[in-house]
Amino acid sequence: MMPAEPALPRTSQRLRRVLPWVLLVGLLAVAQTALVRLTLDYESAREQELVEQTATVAASDIKQSLGRDLQSLQALLWNEPPREQWLRDAAELLRARREMVRIERRDLEMAIESDVDTPYRPPLFTQLRREAIDIDAEVACATATRLSGPAYSRSYFLPLPGGLGVELLDVCLPVLERGRLAGYMVASYALQGLLTEAVNQEIGQRHELAFVEGDGTRLARAGSIARGRGVFVSQRLIDLPGMALQLRLDSGAGEPDLIPNLATALVLGLSLALSAVVLLLVRDVRKRAAAEHGLAEALAFRKAMEDSLVTGLRARDLEGRITYVNPAFCEMVGFAAAELIGKMTVHNPPPYWPPELVDEYSRRQQVRLAGSLPPREGYETVFMRRNGERFPVMVYEAPLVDGQGRHTGWMSAVLDLSAQRRAEELSRQQHEKLQATARLATVGEMASLLSHELNQPLAAISSYATGSINLMHAGEVDAATQRAIRGAIERIAEQAERAGRVIKSVHDFVRRREHLREAIRVDQLIDAVMPLVKLQARKSATRIEIDLPMPPLPMPRVVCDRTMVEQVLLNLTRNGIQAMEAVAPEHRVLRLQVRQTQTRWVEFAVVDQGPGIADEVAERLFTPFFTTKSEGMGLGLSLCRTVVEQHGGLLVFSNRTPEHGGGTEFRFTLASEPGSAASRRAVPGPPARQAQDADLH
Amino acid sequence: MSQPIPTVYLVDDEDVLRDALAWLLRSRRLLSEGYASAEAFEAMLEQRSLHGTYLPRDPCCLLLDVRMPGMSGLALFDRLIERGLIEVMPVIFLTGHADVPTAVAAVKRGAFDFVEKPFSDNALVDRVEQALARSAEVLARCQVAQAVQRKLGELTERERDVMRLVIEGRPNKLIADDLDISVRTVEVHRARVFEKMDVKSAVELANLLRGAGLADR
């Protein structure tokens, strides 16, 4: 059991209980966040990849478009067409290719020989003359000459009326006439147009396409997306002879939303579901803990109840093994629970079975195990304590039935009856003592009444007599006085007669008791007084030996007034016990002996081991009101003798010689029942003896 | 005053015993009155003391049985103590053996004696005579006290004041100062006190009051 250490352990315990949950929830949160994060990242990466792909597609579109244009341009020069033919073809081409805004023929000096403008735009070089911004075209042509093939120029800005402008790109093709460079053909693209025309319409709808410079300056732009959303960006370099165009593609997809994405939604949903499950789990665990706590409480309560019971509890399984004992049972038999539990009864009986009764108990157990129900009111039996002491118990048994309704064993409640037996014994003794006291009190009452009844007439007689004597002494007795004296003497006679009547009534009372005589077996007589004798003996640690005729000798029956003879027996035994007060305890033995001495007489003897009766005491022993005891009245022995003599018997005593153990023997005789078997078959001589030790404690 | 006639009251439920005792007492020339119960005796006392005082006229004593049906002798004894009578009416208990301890206890509380039944008769009568003598003595003292009381009753209030100061031994002059009256008046009161109380001097007056147990009051 834990010592009283409040607050602190409880807090740590609580912490220990809460910590796993905190950790679990924390981990869950981290995991889910990471999952969502990763999912989002993955989504972004995918989107980015998509954008990259789109960008590649767009770039290749542009490149292809440019390639086609180049072929078309080169076709214009096919077979060195005449000027008009070329003009027509160029115009035709410009109509077909919207991204191209102008085609010019130049001579070797870069002077414009002829030019055609796109029909879709107003003339370009109104704000600025073509020659003013010819430098890029010249560089391209120089490159073209060097490469002997088409070359592109850097893009350049051409301001337009209304503050607007357009970014242009030139491509220069060398014109060969019979294998010799004859001039150049320069075509101008509007970058804007290149984007819108070359790139797939679909891409343009979802993305923003732009040509940018190294520093990020946007040269031309196509497509439209909501501003600020372009998170996914891809750049492609479109390598052209003479220059490289940087294409930038902004995705209109923007940052991926949290929910609309299926994967994210799934992950989120699962996370939520997981959280819910965890919550449910927590609730379940909490409920379970509460249930466990309740169960523990109930168990503790039950255990406390069982432990506090005074009744011993014992459970046995169907083989008779002990499966449970409560502390009361252990205390009762003096064995620890560990010594009892698991004991098999067949070869190893429980240690509380008295060895001499094991067979009987085993039989009973077999009967019980065979399934016969024990009596509801229980049965009484004897158990043995560890110290070998046997004690009576009351056992109530009931079948043990488990939760599934199976019969699994037997439950017994065991009550220790020894205390109850002791209490019963005590109460019986007290009752008998009370009866004896009542009897004595009756005698006392009677004596008191008698003394009062006799006192009155005697006092009156005395007074009348004294008065008369006084008068006669006074001198001459005149006639009147004489009459008065006669009257007084008459009263004296009356009162004397009254006293006589009192005495006679006592005698009548004694005679009336003679009708109460009955025939009674001597052992019954002895048994009746034994509790009181034992009570007296126990106080002085005297052993009582009872010596009665044993079969085949018949038990004698005597005819007597039971109460009075019991009184005699009590008186004599009490005297005997008191006589041994000075004797060493081991020699304090009082023997009660009954013998049929003659056909008509049964002799009772009460023998003590005391110092005997001194001669001078012996002389007056039966004299009424003679006593050697401080609180005695001196009536006991004389009354005893009177009672015995009234029954026609004789009460005598003799001091025993030291060879016979010393002490005094009181003997009295009572008439045996005439015609009884005992009196017919009475045999003189030493009868069978039975020495019976009175249990003293 | 006539010669007092002593009376012995016998209270015993036994008629024969009362009769025998009366006979015995008469043989010694003593008058007796018998009562069969404590209640009857009490009724007699009530009847004879209608004047408001229980003081008997003549010396008397009571032979009282301890055990009686109805009110016991001991209970009657208690009632007599309450009435303040046991001095002037000494009580001799008659007891059986069983009552001896209670009778002894009663003696300790003021009973004159106890006699165990059966009794030595003339010795009992001797005790009775002694009790009567005691009664007479007490009675006489009581009667003196009563007479003094009666005389005191005749004094006026002023006379009583003067008397108190006189007994204290103060001279007339100081008494006059104390009571704020003239010396002459004190002398007159003093003379009347002496006359009413039937004494000749202050010393005699003081003795008289002390004899009646009044001096200290």
From TrEMBL, chain A:
<dbReference type="InterPro" id="IPR003661">
    <property type="entry name" value="HisK_dim/P_dom"/>
</dbReference>
<dbReference type="Pfam" id="PF02518">
    <property type="entry name" value="HATPase_c"/>
</dbReference>
<feature type="domain" description="PAS">
    <location>
        <begin position="297"/>
        <end position="346"/>
    </location>
</feature>
<feature type="domain" description="PAC">
    <location>
        <begin position="377"/>
        <end position="429"/>
    </location>
</feature>
<dbReference type="InterPro" id="IPR000014">
    <property type="entry name" value="PAS"/>
</dbReference>
<dbReference type="InterPro" id="IPR035965">
    <property type="entry name" value="PAS-like_dom_sf"/>
</dbReference>
<feature type="region of interest" description="Disordered">
    <location>
        <begin position="673"/>
        <end position="697"/>
    </location>
</feature>
<dbReference type="InterPro" id="IPR003594">
    <property type="entry name" value="HATPase_dom"/>
</dbReference>
<dbReference type="InterPro" id="IPR036097">
    <property type="entry name" value="HisK_dim/P_sf"/>
</dbReference>
<keyword id="KW-0808">Transferase</keyword>
<dbReference type="Pfam" id="PF00989">
    <property type="entry name" value="PAS"/>
</dbReference>
<feature type="domain" description="Histidine kinase">
    <location>
        <begin position="449"/>
        <end position="674"/>
    </location>
</feature>
<dbReference type="InterPro" id="IPR013767">
    <property type="entry name" value="PAS_fold"/>
</dbReference>
<dbReference type="GO" id="GO:0005524">
    <property type="term" value="F:ATP binding"/>
</dbReference>
<keyword id="KW-0597">Phosphoprotein</keyword>
<dbReference type="GO" id="GO:0000155">
    <property type="term" value="F:phosphorelay sensor kinase activity"/>
</dbReference>
<protein>
    <recommendedName>
        <fullName>histidine kinase</fullName>
        <ecNumber>2.7.13.3</ecNumber>
    </recommendedName>
</protein>
<dbReference type="InterPro" id="IPR000700">
    <property type="entry name" value="PAS-assoc_C"/>
</dbReference>
<keyword id="KW-0418">Kinase</keyword>
<dbReference type="InterPro" id="IPR036890">
    <property type="entry name" value="HATPase_C_sf"/>
</dbReference>
<keyword id="KW-0902">Two-component regulatory system</keyword>
<keyword id="KW-0067">ATP-binding</keyword>
TrEMBL record, chain B:
<feature type="domain" description="Response regulatory">
    <location>
        <begin position="7"/>
        <end position="132"/>
    </location>
</feature>
<keyword id="KW-0597">Phosphoprotein</keyword>
<keyword id="KW-0805">Transcription regulation</keyword>
<keyword id="KW-0238">DNA-binding</keyword>
<dbReference type="InterPro" id="IPR016032">
    <property type="entry name" value="Sig_transdc_resp-reg_C-effctor"/>
</dbReference>
<keyword id="KW-0808">Transferase</keyword>
<dbReference type="InterPro" id="IPR001789">
    <property type="entry name" value="Sig_transdc_resp-reg_receiver"/>
</dbReference>
<dbReference type="InterPro" id="IPR000792">
    <property type="entry name" value="Tscrpt_reg_LuxR_C"/>
</dbReference>
<feature type="domain" description="HTH luxR-type">
    <location>
        <begin position="148"/>
        <end position="213"/>
    </location>
</feature>
<dbReference type="Pfam" id="PF00196">
    <property type="entry name" value="GerE"/>
</dbReference>
<dbReference type="Pfam" id="PF00072">
    <property type="entry name" value="Response_reg"/>
</dbReference>
<keyword id="KW-0418">Kinase</keyword>
<feature type="modified residue" description="4-aspartylphosphate">
    <location>
        <position position="65"/>
    </location>
</feature>
<dbReference type="InterPro" id="IPR011006">
    <property type="entry name" value="CheY-like_superfamily"/>
</dbReference>
<dbReference type="GO" id="GO:0000160">
    <property type="term" value="P:phosphorelay signal transduction system"/>
</dbReference>
<keyword id="KW-0804">Transcription</keyword>
<dbReference type="InterPro" id="IPR036388">
    <property type="entry name" value="WH-like_DNA-bd_sf"/>
</dbReference>
<dbReference type="GO" id="GO:0016301">
    <property type="term" value="F:kinase activity"/>
</dbReference>
<dbReference type="GO" id="GO:0003677">
    <property type="term" value="F:DNA binding"/>
</dbReference>
<protein>
    <submittedName>
        <fullName>Histidine kinase</fullName>
    </submittedName>
</protein>
<dbReference type="GO" id="GO:0006355">
    <property type="term" value="P:regulation of DNA-templated transcription"/>
</dbReference>
